[in-house]
Amino acid sequence: MADKSALPELERYAETLLPTEYGRFRTLVYREAGSEFEHLAIVSGEIRDQHEVLVRVHSACLTGEVLHSLKCDCREQLALAMERIDAAGTGVVIYLQQEGRGIGLGNKIRAYAKQEQGLDTVDANRAIGFEDDLRHYGVATAILADLGVRSVQLMTNNPAKVEALRTDGVLVTRRVGHVVAPHELNVDYLLTKRARMGHLYDSANGGNGGLDSPPSERAQAERAQAERLQAERLQPADAE
Ligand SMILES: [Zn+2]
After folding, report:
1. Which of 8, 144, 165, 234 is buried most deeply by CB count within 10 Å?
2. What is the pLDDT of residues 181-199, one digit of tens each?
3. Strands (DSSP E) along 48-150, which ranges?
4. How far is the CA of 65 from the centre of ligand 1 (A)?
5. What is the torsion angle, in degrees rounded to the nearest 10, for the CA atoms of residue 46, residue 81, residue 99 and residue 94?
6. Which domains does the chain have, with CATH numbers?
7. What separation in Å is there between the alpha carbon of 5 and the centre of ligand 1?
8. Residue 36 buriedness (CB in 10 A; 0-12 / 13-18 / 19+)
9. How many angstroms does the Cα of residue 64 sit away from the middle of ligand 1?
10. Would you say residue 54 has pLDDT above 90?
């Protein structure tokens, strides 16, 4: 693992077995020193000293997860991650309190207001004065170290997240594609993440979605659906 001194200081504050729609998970709350943030580790099975543990590093999304906003795919991605670690029998979802790619809830809503004027998700963040992605994954690294996870199969479509964790010192042996089906209202958002943030939507769920695996039929079908929905839209995604 990484130089521990560079990681945020966390306190493992509480722990319980939580029954959910997706199964029973050992749920741990970590408090981050010097902040009000409480982060979660949602654990299935025995992961201490295990290699190639299935891991999702997930950022909180109140609008998606609580309000069922259709502007993003966060709720579906969280549900899929919990289903997958329950099915695998071992794994962990690390749930980070960093709303709106790190800009906070109020600023995310301000960015959404910019999107109403036609900006995409990247330009909207820039318009209100934020970088594209302020998330940092030091907390996730510290939680994985506390849980004793030796190496990780990371469920994500975002290669930058793999790189960020590796830079922090997490041994990520494989990226597992984490694709949920797009729908009409979030298709622009997903296409923007692909075009402007380097996200990959070419790996099947549950398949061998490694970095070099070829596009699956399902992923190709989902991409075709996304592109068809995009083409059918009356308004262009960018205002420029
Ligand atoms: Zn979201």
Report:
1. 144
2. 877 777 777 788 888 888 8
3. 53-59, 91-96
4. 7
5. 10
6. 4-98+135-181+203-212 (3.40.50.10990)
7. 31
8. exposed
9. 5
10. yes
Residue 45 to residue 51: CA distance in whole angstroms: 13
Q: Which residue has the higher pLDDT, 212 or 153?
A: 153
Cα 154 to Cα 22, 32, 75, 171: the distances in Å are 19, 23, 18, 10
Active-site residue set: 133, 135
* CA 121 – ligand 1 centroid, Å: 11
**Which 3-state string (H, E, C) describes 195-229?**
HHHCCCCCCCCCCCCCCCCCCCHHHHHHHHHHHHH
Ligand 1 center–CA 122 separation, angstroms = 14
> In this structure, what token pair is assigned to residue 24?
């029973």
Report pLDDT for 232.
Answer: 53
Residue 81 · residue 95 · CB < 8 Å: no
CA–centroid distance, 74 to ligand 1, in Å, is 4
CB 99 within 8 A of CB 105: yes
Please list the helix, strand and coil fractions of the chain in percent, rounded to the nearest 5, in that order. 40, 20, 40
Return the number of other C-beta atoms located less than 10 Å from residue 56's C-beta: 24
How many whole angstroms separate alpha carbon 109 and alpha carbon 191?
Answer: 20
Asked whether 8 and 55 are in contact (CB, 8 A), the reply is: no
